[in-house]
Amino acid sequence: MSYSVGQVAGFARTTVRTLHHYDEIKLLSPSGRTASGYRRYDDADLDRLQQILFYRELGFSLEEIATILDDRDIAPSEHLRRQHALLTGRIERLQRMAAAVEEALEARTMGIRLTPEEKFEIFGEGYQEYEDEAQERWGGTDAWEQSRQRTAELTKDDWIRIKAEGDGIMRRISAAVRGGVAADSGVAMDIAEEHRQHVCRNFYDCSYAMQRGLAEMFVADERFQATYEELAEGAARWFRDAVLANAERGERR
User: What pLDDT does 136 receive?
Assistant: First the structure.
């Protein structure tokens, strides 16, 4: 099988112009041409293009990619192993950042009163950027003001306790999802209610409607979603559904 430059651009979701450029710099030259001089790519060319695009996504320059791919001492399977390791490392870093996002956003939303050193110690890296985002998103709301008043006198030990409570809820979510517990079951709804009471007890009066909004954000915002997906695949949607089921249960009472 051979493919035209337009077909290859479509497969790879890149542009014909990009493929022409790769050919010009000898990074990816098609294995054949038609009698009229049109480029034709075979399966080996597509494999090389996949490697190029992987490395580009990982931040390598075209010159670096050419050096790597033209090294005959590196087998194709080694490229895949290297890319897998690099991607796994990036995913882990993003997941840690997502966890820091959730903790920092919640902390800022609740009017946390800690020194920068204490915030870093409790919530980890990346909190400052997300504090600013939380202020922009929720500043001026009734919940924001209420949380500021409630947390004004909290100590570092209080925040450590609150974080431990939150971590416990996350562990229960993880165990339930991994155990195949249905999102509309009593167990799932109890976890959702524990989360709501955690917010009410420590921060602001979280109605079922407000918790629904939070749960939808956990699914819609990729950073929050990644935090839950790190617990277990499908955990973000599972928790959202558990919150909705619990809200329906609570409003019927």
Answer: 59
